[in-house]
Amino acid sequence: MLTIDVDYNDYSYFAYVVEFGGFSAAARHIGIPKSRLSRRIAALEERLGVRLLQRSTRKLTLTDVGQKFLNHCQALQREAEAAECIVASVKAEPSGRVRLSVPPGLLDHLTPVLQRFITEHPKVILETITTTRRVDLLEEGIDVALRVRATDDEDPQWATRRLRATRGMLVASPALVARLGGLSTPGALALAPALGTVAADQMIHWRLVNAAGEVREFVLPPRLVSEHFGLRRQAAIDGLGVTMLPMENARADIEAGLLVEVLPEWRFPLSHLQAVYASQRGLSPAVRALLDLLVETMV
């Protein structure tokens, strides 16, 4: 392990000497005298205790260790350039168009956040695409996609920022629960009208777990098919059926007595809201500002 101070400029100088094929061209590119550059490389070799370059009157040749060292020096150059780009993008004022994909059920909850984003960044045009479909960010030109996924459902193809954890619960109006005899057992749920989204078989599928880790899946015919939490919430309050709502969407209505939790010992598996985007590197100031606000307000 090296114990003396390291000047990483020497690493970059070495990479430039190789890139430009000699000390003269590299010195002109860097803007320092050739003699000084030569001394810096010689001092670098002395400090490392190895010869990086074989020098002749006609050309420079990398040694084996010099080639390996060069690969790391070039990686340092790339990281330094990326660091400068990040700083420059942060300093720049957000502007331009940002395309955000949002599941319909999240849009109402997200509206205050998006309104704040537009207000704080008047030069940004925000376009929302409302869909539950798994969008292809590159093919469809989506900058950020919000998705609700199980905790073990991470897509390595994209960069992600995990936002808040969420868990679904079954709710219904007190009057409907009383009319159906309390809905106190899983078997009783089959008698209840169901409100929600349907699978390919046009049936509502609810997969629930209890504290012991037992899993039960319910397949029910729909009374109302909708991806929109707001519509399902109001339909449940009006006594039209049982529906799944995220806990944060249902909490206030339960406290107000408008809804009650059905089968409280059975709940949906824990999921999380995540923001998905193409890459950390090269994000526009506008996209970075949106991601930062989502993290600030939804974690």
CATH architecture of the largest domain: 3-Layer(aba) Sandwich
Q: N-to-C SSE series? A: HHHEEHEHEHEEEHHEEEEHEHEEH
**In CATH, what is the class of the largest domain?**
Alpha Beta
Morphology call = elongated
Oligomer: single chain
Total of domains: 3
Instruction: Count up the helices.
Output: 11
Mean pLDDT: 88
Looking at the structure, the CATH topology of the largest domain is D-Maltodextrin-Binding Protein, domain 2
User: N-to-C terminal Cα separation, in Å?
Assistant: 41 Å
Q: Characterize the biggest β-sheet.
A: 5 strands, mixed
Helical content class: 40-55%
Q: Report strand %.
A: 15-25%
Side by side, the strands of the main sheet go: 4-3-5-14-6
- Number of DSSP E strands: 14
User: What integer value in Å does the Rg equal?
Assistant: 30 Å
Structural class: alpha/beta
What do you see in this structure?
By secondary structure, this protein is an alpha/beta fold. The protein has three domains: 81 residues, Winged helix-like DNA-binding domain superfamily/Winged helix DNA-binding domain (Arc Repressor Mutant, subunit A); 98 residues, D-Maltodextrin-Binding Protein, domain 2 (3-Layer(aba) Sandwich), CATH 3.40.190; 102 residues, 3-Layer(aba) Sandwich (D-Maltodextrin-Binding Protein, domain 2), CATH 3.40.190. It is built from eleven helices and 14 strands. A five-stranded mixed beta sheet has the order 4-3-5-14-6, covered by helices on one side. Helix 1 packs across helix 3. The model has no long low-confidence stretch (mean pLDDT 88).
